[in-house]
Structure formats: structure tokens, C-alpha cells
Amino acid sequence: MAVRATVSRFPIDSDSQEASGIPWGLTVTPFAFTDENDQVPAYGSDGHLLPRCENCYAYFNTYCELDQWAWNCSLCGTLNGLSAKAIARYSHPQSCAEMMSSFIDLELPLEGLEDEMLHARPVYVAAVDLASSEEFLELIKSALQAALEALAPGSLFGLVTFSHKIGLYDVQGPIPVVKNVFVPQETEGTLPIELEDVMPLLQFLAPVETCKDRITSALETLRPTTSWDRTPGAGQVLDGVLMGGRGFGVAMEALCNYLGSEYGNTFALARVFAFLSGPPDYGPGQLDTRRYGEQYASKGEDADRALLPEQTSFYKDLASVAVQAGVCVDIFAVTNEYTDLASLKFLSIESGGSLFLYSNTDDSTLPQDMYRMLSRPYAFNCVLRLRTSTEFKSGHSYGHFFPDPQYENVQHIICCDSFATYAYDFDFANNVGFSRHSSELPMVQIAFQYTVVVPPEEHTSSGVVSSIRNKHSLKRRLRIRTLQYGTAHNLDELYDSVDPEAVLSLLVHKVILASLEQGVREGRMLLHDWLVILTAQYNEAFNLIQYKNGSSSNAAQIDVTFSQCPQLQLLPRLAFALLRNPLLRFHEEGVHPDYRIYMQCLFSVLEPSSLHRAIYPMLTSYSTPDKQAYPRHSLSRAALITSGSPIFVLDAFTTLIVFYSSTADPSLPFPPPHDCLLRSTINKLKQGRCITPKLVFIRGGHDDATAFENYLIEEQDVDGSGLTSVTGFASFLEDITQSVLVFMK
Known about the structure:
There is one protein chain. The chain has 745 residues and is of the alpha+beta class. Strands 9, 10, 11, 12, 13, 16, 17 and 18 form an eight-stranded mixed sheet that branches. It has a seven-stranded mixed sheet with strand order 4-8-25-24-19-22-21. A five-stranded mixed sheet has the order 28-27-29-30-31, with helices on both faces. Helix 5 (134-150) links the parallel strand 9 (123-129) and strand 10. The radius of gyration is 28 Å and the shape is globular. It starts with a strand and ends with a helix.
């Protein structure tokens, strides 16, 4: 569980927080195997016996004062008695994880439904769009072959297709058999027959280890639907071209109901991989994509605002159905046409899944992403709870979870991997703040309760393997992290404790929220105004404002680079880069609304260091493929020229570009050989990602270098209104200076 606060020394009171201009909060990556310093938790058992405070319900931890019969809560100060069991337990402190570390992971007994599902099996279902092309299906076949290699023995796999009909595959017989049911064309229509009546679920779900070859054979039979396949009523003819026939909504609804019948019996969580080649345009859940063209052509309405909200609640409602059925949906959209991900995203992110977008089939990393996603462990049925000491409280919470309807600051996460990150911001509970002289420091406790599926080999000894072969088991665990923070007695101390990457995380969440509610323009204004206010507060705190020619404020000198405070110096660049990111660029600049939604979903789950790379890419130079020259450059042509290095590596998180300058020695091998330092660095970067970055090699003077040059943002105008100039970032700082002067008048 990695936790990163925006400031390691908290503001002393609300006035100090207001005066600092720094967002106050933290990010948490609950299922990360280590903390932010690479320390592992202390593991233990009997999590249900861990004492809890009678007042605030915080868990006992190493910061609590303990005597023979009682303990003081480190969060609220309440004196709590110890049970006889706890007294006996703590008489041997070395055997208790909670006495040895403030970061613990304890096993819990299974209760109720989970106890009945002790040997539930992992279930995976691929839902493939047949209203597509041959190229699309070839890519999906490759991705599913990769998925089959990653699935653990004992897993169950099902294959379903959708178009103007839903196809269920039975791969447990000698040859694959498909049974179809037609989708009603009307938006309010229902399937004429339940999927369970078409094919019993346990006939549909096949054991991977015995049916892999037949699953592969079934995949080979997939063909796109043609006009000959469709009934006369399927789709619509426009200008002689048959459109429509992608009944995605009704297929997903039927699939959730189908799988739900075995939730709690055969499986504890079913993961559905939905592969889409375009917008759902047939039957219930169809989307009207004409709004994209209408908004793009309209002059009076803000397209950046109009295309971000969903046009129907169908997929949001369907996500609730999925959660009730124990189904988590990952959506993989492989398309460059408008698909309205603004409406579709809820089915994935609210059911615990992910949203992926690939603009074409040629260089798609979908197979690698599938393998990577299925190879890493995940937790499910998770509950995340943040508690604080009494002087402050959690304000907003951000991330792909849904809040508990009954309890404050309790979030439910359907499915969570080791990369998924959430954020909270803080407010003071009153006007008093933290005591300046007390030894009672600010405390934060984060509790994460989760379930994991344990493969057979991890819970059997060699003597009894045969009796429970291929039986997975469930384990419920409780992970707790208790943190103590210092307080900053002045702004100097507070600014010195800033974590700029954690600040960026909170800012990104806030501008995404503002964009969704009020449009991209509002998101940009919020970010710009924040930097202006921070710069003004900093200059006032350090008395840095100098006036030229007497008292004319127009000629005042403002320190916009935070020269007195190293921890703040990165922030103007990060704000500038965020304004140049597709997340906040205007529709007129050619930012596709689906790509913007994909960026919002991706950035909302990235941990701070990854988000930093995605917003302000890292540019490194090499003198040869085996020798690094400089570890970091600014993103400008000037940096390239002055470095004199022949090779550059740009890491933009989703893309890795190796660029050879036009002046590079022709004897340098291109592309770099597989056994060199540069390649091994790239491989390490790829391994540590939640998605597979696209790797591009560009030879300056020979290849089109536009993809590389587009990342040199410091020479681009911040609003995208002008041509590339040498004054992009510099003119942005000048604009901030003028805005600060106006603000301070």
C-alpha cells in the first residue's frame, strides 16, 4: 500500500492552508505490494481479533499507547479496554504483526457467501464484436490467444459474439458449436429467449486446461457479419451502404444475467472482456453518434462541454446489474470512429474494469495488454476506508469506486490491481487546527479489506494435490497502514515538504471533475487560476515582489519560477504540460472526444510517478546505445541542440520513442541492438507499466519526426491558437506574471 501526501508536513491551521495555495491531500495505491519506500507489510492472521477504538473505530496500531489492560487510540485519544484474548495476544508482541509494524496485512475468516465459495473458480468471458472487419477479428484472436496463455489452470473460459444476434459457443464437445439468438431491433426490446435456455451456463464455461485447443478452433471460425448474414430489418441502409447491427447493450445485459445465476456457486468474480469495433447501434443500449458531427459543425455550443456527458444512463444502470451479478467488465475499443465512450465508460469503470482505446489494428498493443492484465494478481470485493485524527477530515475522494450508501469515507472497489490509485483531499474539522506545542501529531489510517483467489499450488502440499487438483480457494485479508505526519509552523517549512507529483495527481482529479461538470474551458481556467494564486501566495510569503520605478505595480518583478523553493520549481512546467495535454486541449485542435474520455479514465487510476510521465514526458539522451549522456532534458528543440547527443529516448508513459538526430554518426546502429543498455532500459520501463507502451523508432532526416516533435511542448503556445514558436513556455510564464499582478491589485 503506497501512500503519498501532497505535503509531508501538514498546514498548522486553515489560515495556513489557505495562504499556502497547495492542495492538501494524499494518493493511495492500496493493493501495491510495497509502500512508497519499497517496504513490505508485516503479515499475520486473525485480523478479526485486532482491537478497534470504541469511539472512532480505528484499528489498534504501533502509534497507540498500550498498558497492561488498556490502550489509547492514536487517532482520537479514547482510552479502550483490552479483552482477555488481546491481553494474552500482546504478552508475546513479537508474534503480532500489529505490534511490529504500522503497515500490516492480516488474514480474515471467510464469512457468509465467501465461505460457501471457498473453492470458487476464476471465470473469464470474451465478448467479440462481429459487426467488424477481418483485421479487427485477427487482432482479437491474437489477444485471446495471449489471454489463454496467461490464464491459470482451473480457470473457466466462455466465448460469446454479438452483432444483430448473440452467439454462444460450446467448446466442450469434439467440435465447437455455436448457438445464436437474434437481438430485437427496438431500443425497448428484449431477447425472445434467456441465454440459459439457449445453452446451460456450465456447458458454455469450459475448463481452460482441457479445452484450450478447442477454444482456439472456435476463435478461428470467427468471421465478420456481412449483409448476407443479416435479416432485412437489421441495421439501416444509408446511400447504399448497410449500417448498424452491433447489439452490444443487449448482449452485455443478457450476459450479466446469464453469469449471475452461478455467482456465489461456481465463481466469486467473473471478468468479461468486451471487444468493440464501433458504437453500439442496434437494439437496447444503442447510441446516437450523430451528436459528434452536429456539435463539431455547430458554432453556438461548446463541443468540449457537450461531448463529455453521457447521452443515456443505460450503461451506468447496467454497471449496477453487473456488480450484483459478480461481473467485472473490461472494454477494449479498437476504432477511430466516434463510439461515445462518454456513455460506455460507466460499464467498465463502475463494475471494477478498465477502458482501453486503440485507434487502429496495425500497431495495437492489445495482445500484450491482455497478457499483462491477466498475468498480474488482482483483489476483488474490496472496501477502502480512510480515517484521520480529530482535527481534520477527508473532503472529496477520487477514483474508480462507488461510495458506501451508509458510511462516510467508505469506498467499495469491485476489482483492484496493484496499480490502481485513489486520492483524497483534506479539510480542517474546525478553526482551531493542530496544536503548535502538543506532541499529538496528525494521524491517517487507511484500511483495505479485500479478497484474493489463491491458485491450487499455493495452498496444497505435494501429498494432497491430487484430491483437490485445480481447486482455487478464496482468502479474505485486511491491509492497514497508519501514518503520522509532522506539522509546518510556517510556509517555508510547508513548501519544503511538498511532493510535486502528489500535487499533480490531485490537480488532475480536480480538473477532470471540473471538465465533466462544466466543460474543458472551465477545467483549464481552474488550473490557470490555481497557479496564479500559488505564485502570488509564494511571492507574498517570501517578500519577493520588487517594484521598478517607484511604485508602479505593472513593472513589478515576480518570481514565477519559485527560485527560493526547489520543491515548487516543477509545478509551473507540470501546469503548462497539463494545459497542453489532450485532457485539456480544445476540441478545435483535433482532440477526439473518445480519446479525451480514455485519457480521463487512464489518468484517474495512475499513481503519481506514472502520471508525471504521462503529463510531462521524460527525455533522456545517449551518446551511444550503451552509454547514457544526460538523465533528463526539458521538452524543447533547444535542449536537443545544446546537448549535442545523437540519441534521445522519450518516455510519455503510453508511448516510448527512440529518436536518432539527423546529425548522428551513421555508424551508430539503428535501431539499437537488443543487447544494449538503451534496450534493457526500455524493457524495464515496459515491465513496470499497467499498459504496454507503444515503442517507436525514428531516424531524423530519414523518417517523419512529427510524432517526436509533438512532445516538445515547451515551444508550443499554451492554448494551441498559434503556430509553434520559441516562446511557448516562456510566454506562459509571462502570462502568469501579468495575471499575478492583476490578482494582487
